[in-house]
């Protein structure tokens, strides 16, 4: 659960993420998120301000995180209410890829890049534009951790990489695959692998995601590369930022003609 609160010492609004004390999974997620976020300093990552355990009820102590309050819509909410322009989509994927480049360079794999974990923040200044920020590092791992325990798969089924479905050792390429599915969904308006969690997860083992006519020709090669079945065939986050910047520049030049 996440609550809006006020830091009385600093006089500013914050968000408090409260974990259930009864779930071992929540305790693991709490420790993971604290450890990962404490070492990250990037404008695309929501900052951690404090962490601890609420023991006001001794029989029910609950871990909590105090994090920067990010006001805006999730990408999931935005996709449900309006169609994004090609430029907005391109800027979004550029910013998320830039954030992934930063965390990957520090040995962190997010493992749950989804529209629900991307916030679109509008700072509402005259010349600013909405910015994308990556949230929820509860499933993140350092690259030295090989994989989940036998028989478990962490992440959101519709956005898992093939290697996540197979419970194979992960690399940063797993996040790139997930971002590729997010990019495809932004253009097409539909989830690439629909169905119940099992159907959705297994679908990507049978076939590549379909690129509908709604996907602009200029962006199709990048999406195909990002969603390649083999992790080794996918671009790095840095490569995605370069490709997205180039596509955005070409789009602007077309608009100017």
TrEMBL record:
Keyword vocabulary terms for this entry: ATP-binding, Kinase, Nucleotide-binding, Serine/threonine-protein kinase, Transferase
Gene3D superfamilies per record: Phosphorylase Kinase, domain 1 (3.30.200.20), Transferase(Phosphotransferase) domain 1 (1.10.510.10)
Domain called Protein kinase: residue spans: 1-248
PROSITE patterns: PROTEIN_KINASE_DOM (PS50011), PROTEIN_KINASE_TYR (PS00109)
EC number: 2.7.11.1
GO molecular function annotations of the record: ATP binding; protein serine/threonine kinase activity
Top EC class of this enzyme: transferase
InterPro entries cross-referenced by the UniProt entry: Kinase-like_dom_sf, Prot_kinase_dom, Tyr_kinase_AS
Pfam families in UniProt: Pkinase
Highest taxon of the lineage: Bacteria
The protein, known as: non-specific serine/threonine protein kinase
Biological source species: Leifsonia aquatica ATCC 14665
